[in-house]
Write a structure and sequence with these properties.
By secondary structure, the protein is α/β, with parallel strands linked by helices. The chain folds into two domains: about 120 residues, Rossmann fold (3-Layer(aba) Sandwich), CATH 3.40.50; about 60 residues, Orthogonal Bundle (Arc Repressor Mutant, subunit A), CATH 1.10.10. About 50% of the residues lie in helices and about 15% in strands. It has ten helices and five strands; from the N terminus they run βαβαβαβαβαααααα. Strands 2-1-3-4-5 form a five-stranded parallel beta sheet, sandwiched between helices. The chain is globular, with a radius of gyration of 17 Å. It starts with a strand and ends in a 6-residue tail after the last helix. Keywords: DNA-binding, Phosphoprotein, Transcription, Transcription regulation. One of its GO terms (biological process) is phosphorelay signal transduction system.
Amino acid sequence: MEPIRVILADDHTLLRQGLRKILELDPQFQVLDEAGDGQGAINLARRVKPDVILMDIHMPGVDGVEATRVVKRERPQTGIIILTAHEEEDQIITLIEAGVDGYLLKDVSPETLYGAIVTVARGGSVLNPAIVQKALGKGRFGPNGAGHPADELTEREKEVLRLIAQGATNATIAGALFISEKTVKNHITNIFRKLQVKDRTQAALYAIKHRLVKL
């Protein structure tokens, strides 16, 4: 199996070096390169085409939010996990709207980080429940600040949405519901359209807000 190709983007050199050492302990990861700011991350994403980027929010010049927007616009298949030192619930919705696939605090264990990278590389999403709940408590959700009623979804679509919110990949959802991956993709397309969201992470937020899944 090919290793998961990772880029590290953080303006603190020691932190990048520490992350590199942690990831290099596990052969399932390959650290391709490092960037000290958002523009560097964008340039590396264009050049080496990583599977996952571990990104800080606060960096000089182009920050993590804008870098996420650009990378996701140019290469949506690249997963982006935000690693931050502090809970910044004011930023989480903005990041999700930018297309981020995961949001973790920098004090997570190596095992949690490994699992998050694998999940995102496989097309899943990773959210910190405490931060998400605080962000939702501020009353903002989705591109227009409001969600659609849950009853617009069919029961099967709700089942798929619950699994998305748990970070499940299409293959995992297909196995759990005994349907094909093509059918899963069709359900996800319908879910995105009905909820007016653009990615799995926004859909997961909807599920959390409307208590369709327990975290």
